[in-house]
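Input.
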Amino acid sequence: MTKCVEYCKSYARHWDELVSQSRNATFMMQRQYMDYHADRFVDASLVFVDDHSHFVALLPANYDASTHTVYSHQGLTYGGLIMSYDIHTDDVTEALTQAIDHYRQMGAQRLVYKPIPYIYNRYPSQEDLYYLYTHGARLVARGLSQTIYLPHPIKPNTLRRRKLKTSLNAGNHVCQLTDVTAFWHILDHTLQSRHNVRPVHSIDELHLLMSRFPDQIKLYATLGSDDEVLAGVIVYDCGRVVHTQYLAASERGRATGALDHVVTHLISQTYADREYFDFGISTEHDGHCLNPGLTFQKESFGGRGVCYDTWELNLLPQQ
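Output.
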């Protein structure tokens, strides 16, 4: 029997312990990651405890009172129920039923739920998807990511290999950097000029997160022979999965194949012993629009499709 309890700061240590020991969570569900932007969201996270007061499941969430909507979680790429190895299907059913009852009492009218993509699971953990399906939830968004299966990767195409050769011939080299400033300005210029958006994280926020998670969040860059930053990749190391949070190259970097250089280095050397190298989604507008340029670039490295889904559950009483 599990009991649903509202999260409070005094639970942070136990929360983080379960995240690290769970069968499906990544470090982004740690409170030090979630809470760096706590001022932007009204936290509605829940913990589930057993008869011995042990944490057995967690639900990262925030509440938007203006739309009467609970999200799991708007500040995260994915979320959903975090599960211990010990809980079973009936425990998941009980936990999510209690969560829905709790959110209804808050006045919530819908739940927007972003489950963790299966490649990040350390052990099968899709009981929550079955619950959503059997309780009338709708699939409202589906992003498509390109992911490389590292034990048996598909070889990069001729273009990628040619650009890598160009970078090597130019005298470029790859290294890890701790200061993101130069790369962030390249990223910001790229996003503004091509997509009219800004990076989700500021320079200060990235430095803060890298200081909190030095083993998980890293910047790898291609430098020219004069040590100018030409391209870079900010990597989120989730253990069996490595995710590229940001990729960008300057004009000089694009001309010399600098991004191909650093990505190839990460795939073939730095993280060659991992299971998946996940580039992230190449879709827009809830997945209805596929960006062909991004898709081609990531697939040309050997990436193939993994879905990032969003479900919506109506919490209003059924007539």
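The CA atoms of residues 283 and 290 lie 4 Å apart.
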